Design the sequence.
């Protein structure tokens, strides 16, 4: 990743979105900002309401690859299908290492908000799955979710400003990983058709 921005806004098809750079004091990776916005936009093209969920994952030891978090994303998708009959899941994760010796992950999930409007049950299930593998309990921040309405874009600015934290330059590109291991990854959902269908649920 090369392109960075210290602007207070990010321009995307969703609109001019606020980002958390502390008025230019810090920088964010444009590539990650674009993936966040694009996956949210894709989910909104299928669903009139999208629930955005934020949490962090820590590990019992530092791993040189991202296998643990990749496996969890697969399990979450299977869980959504088993419980709600839906497999459409948008997500972004970033891997960071700062002062601690062990790296950690910041995660955002985008799920059908008509199917799941509150994340408590899903987060409890994620906690059980993660700790069963010997990892510490996931960190759930205050105000960990937003419900975004497609017609009004309600909560869009609040959510994106919060999620832009995942794109911060600080903490990425550190040691304790193979050169082939990514600092971030995410789903690759495509837009539904050429325009958003407001009748979709």
Sequence:
């Amino acid at each position: 990743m090369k392109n960075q921005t210290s602007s207070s806004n990010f321009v995307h098809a969703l609109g001019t979105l606020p980002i958390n750079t502390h008025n230019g004091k810090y920088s964010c990776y444009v590539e990650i900002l674009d993936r966040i916005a694009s996956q949210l936009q894709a989910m909104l093209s299928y669903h009139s309401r999208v629930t955005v969920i934020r949490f962090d994952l820590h590990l019992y030891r530092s791993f040189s690859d991202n296998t643990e978090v990749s496996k969890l994303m697969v399990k979450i998708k299977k869980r959504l299908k088993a419980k709600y009959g839906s497999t459409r899941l948008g997500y972004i994760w970033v891997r960071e290492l700062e002062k601690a010796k062990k790296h950690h992950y910041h995660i955002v999930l985008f799920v059908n908000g008509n199917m799941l409007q509150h994340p408590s049950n899903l987060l409890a299930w994620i906690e059980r799955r993660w700790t069963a593998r010997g990892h510490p309990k996931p960190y759930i921040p205050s105000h960990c979710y937003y419900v975004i309405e497609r017609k009004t874009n309600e909560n869009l600015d609040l959510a994106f400003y919060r999620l832009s934290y995942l794109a911060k330059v600080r903490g990425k590109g550190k040691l304790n990983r193979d050169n082939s291991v990514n600092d971030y990854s995410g789903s690759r959902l495509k837009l539904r058709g050429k325009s958003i269908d407001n009748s979709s649920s």
Summary: The chain has one domain: 4-185. The chain has a mean pLDDT of 90.
